[in-house]
Design goal:
With 266 residues, this protein is mainly α. The protein folds into 2 domains: 15-42 and 52-159 and 173-180, Leucine-rich Repeat Variant (Alpha Horseshoe), CATH 1.25.10; 181-266, no CATH class. It has 14 helices and no strands. The protein has helices spanning 7-37, 63-67, 71-77, 83-96, 102-108, 114-127, 132-138, 144-154, 160-171, 175-180, 182-188, 194-203, 207-214, 219-232. Helix 4 packs parallel to helix 6, helix 6 (114-127) packs parallel to helix 8 and helix 7 (132-138) runs parallel beside helix 9 (160-171). The radius of gyration is 19 Å and the shape is elongated.
């Protein structure tokens, strides 16, 4: 007999899901905020196109140098009770490109403030390759926020290790990680991965995720989105084709994508 989830457990899960989606929205906007912080010291031109595959040592990323605080001092500032102080520290750590900044930033994924968690995720993306292995470890954390945000960050770092770790999470049906990086998996369009994606939607009910599935063009995901809408009595919005995330639209051959190789039977 399958044990029934209590009302308090369901409510807690809904709040966790809402928190992750809030962080995801912030994470998508954070590059512009980083750029705004550095506007006086960076050249004119596109300000939100980060080289996420690099080490972050570009001369353009001078915000941390202007701060004149060491990594240790910045890490200490993360313990401040003031959001503004923690935000400044997280941004400076990300702009430093220093591998020693990774540990305190990983710890900031557990910050009580969703803004700080989102900024920490973007800072880790900014650091790039040195953050990959710690993010892979964090993706296995039992904390939903840490696992999902780590997966979200990994999906934005163009590194074969990040890609391989996400593929393992998909094969292992790591629903927390899949929830955090579901857009990556929809774009990748791995044949046979639909069941893992649907499982994540059912575990972590999200209207944003359901609408992405509805507009993906994948019959199994579309069906699961309609099932979700009936179950939760929500109306899902069809999106214009140009605005939708389409199944298999983001295959990355540079990373030797596994999207042409079906997942082995679970």
């Amino acid at each position: 007999m399958i044990p029934q989830e209590s009302h308090s457990s369901r409510q807690r899960r809904r709040l966790q899901v809402a928190g992750i989606l809030f962080c995801a929205c912030l994470l998508s906007a954070t590059p512009a905020l980083f750029a705004q912080e550095n506007r006086g010291s960076q050249p004119a031109g596109p300000m939100n196109e980060f080289d996420t595959g690099g080490t972050g040592n570009s001369a353009a990323f001078t915000g941390a140098a202007a701060d004149h605080r060491s990594i240790k001092e910045l890490a200490q500032s993360l313990k401040s009770g003031e959001r503004s102080a923690r935000t400044e520290a997280v941004m400076a750590l990300g702009q430093s490109g220093d591998s020693h900044a990774v540990k305190p930033l990983i710890e900031s994924l557990k910050d009580r403030d969703p803004y700080i968690r989102a900024f920490a995720g973007m800072a880790l993306i900014r650091i790039g390759a040195p953050a990959v292995q710690p993010l892979i470890a964090a993706m296995k954390d039992n904390d939903l926020y840490v696992s999902a945000l780590s997966a979200m960050a990994l999906s934005s770092i163009k590194d074969p290790r990040a890609h391989d770790a996400l593929m393992r999470a998909l094969q292992e049906h790591n629903s927390r990680a899949i929830f955090g990086s579901h857009t990556f998996f929809v774009k990748l369009g791995v044949p046979g991965s639909e069941s893992a994606l649907i499982e994540a939607l059912n575990k972590f009910p999200s209207q944003e995720m359901a609408e992405e599935f509805l507009n993906s063009g994948n019959p199994a995901l579309v069906s699961s989105a309609n099932d979700w809408a009936r179950k939760y009595k929500h109306s899902l919005k069809p999106a214009p084709a140009t605005a939708s995330v389409h199944w298999g639209s983001g295959q990355d051959t540079a990373l030797q994508s596994a999207s042409n190789h079906p997942l082995s039977a679970q």
